[in-house]
Design goal:
elongated; 125 residues; mainly alpha
Length: 125
C-alpha cells in the first residue's frame, strides 16, 4: 500500500476533510477570518509578551552580573550547590532567571566573562 500512496497524501486528505467541513459549516470567509484573528492574537498576546519577558530577564542577568550580585550569590550558595550539583553557587542565579523567564536565560550570562569565571570549562557548557 505504501508504494501506491505518497507520504504526504494522507495528511492532505485529513486536513482537507477537516477544513472542508469547517468551511462548509462556517463559510470560507468566516473560517479564514477566524484563523487569521487567532494567529494574530497568538502572535501579539503570547509571543511578543514572552519575548519581552526574555529581554527583561536577560537585562536583569547582565545588571546582576555587572554590579557584583553574582559574586555575592556565589559566596552564599557555594556550600549548597557544590555538594548537590558539583556547580558553583552562581549556577543558581541562572536557574532562577531561567525559571522566571521560561527560557534559557543562562545563555546570555554564559557569554559574560564575569559570570563565566566561576565555572570550569566543562561546567559552562
Amino acid at each position: 500500500m505504501k508504494k501506491y500512496i505518497p507520504e504526504g497524501v494522507p495528511c492532505l486528505v485529513i486536513l482537507g476533510i477537516i477544513f472542508g467541513y469547517l468551511g462548509s459549516t462556517m463559510g470560507v470567509a468566516n473560517l479564514m477570518n477566524t484563523i487569521m484573528h487567532t494567529a494574530f492574537d497568538l502572535l501579539v498576546n503570547t509571543c511578543f509578551f514572552l519575548m519581552a519577558v526574555c529581554v527583561i530577564t536577560g537585562a536583569l542577568g547582565k545588571i546582576l552580573s555587572k554590579f557584583g550580585v553574582v559574586g555575592l550569590v556565589e559566596k552564599m550558595l557555594r556550600p549548597l550547590m557544590r555538594p548537590l550539583f558539583n556547580l558553583p553557587g552562581t549556577a543558581s542565579l541562572g536557574a532562577v532567571l531561567t525559571f522566571l523567564s521560561d527560557n534559557p536565560a543562562i545563555i546570555t550570562l554564559a557569554h559574560d566573562n564575569k559570570f563565566a569565571k566561576y565555572f570550569r570549562k566543562y561546567q559552562l557548557i
